[in-house]
Specification:
Shape: elongated
Largest sheet: none
Helix content: over 70%
Radius of gyration: 18 Å
Number of helices: 3
Number of domains: 1
Strand content: under 5%
């Protein structure tokens, strides 16, 4: 729980800095903060999905490897 609060605080602080620099007209700085914030959102989303898949595989009784293979196959189908 402590890790989530720290990440949430850093994420909100980054978003506030992005909006602040955007309104101040510092486009290069806001671009950097926007890029960092976007990368953080993308990577954090995949971490949550992996943790959820791991917990689900344990609950269902599958090995983590088998659940990962099944997830990989499912993500490649339209």
């Amino acid at each position: 729980m402590q890790k989530s609060r720290i990440e949430l605080t850093i994420g909100i602080l980054g978003l506030v800095c992005y909006v602040l620099f955007l309104f101040l007209g510092l486009s290069r700085v806001s671009l950097i903060f926007g890029f960092i914030f976007g990368v953080w959102i993308i990577t954090r989303g995949s971490e949550v999905a992996v943790e959820g898949l791991k917990d689900t595989s344990i609950h269902v009784g599958m090995r983590e490897y088998d659940a990962g293979v099944l997830s990989s196959l499912a993500s490649n189908f339209p």
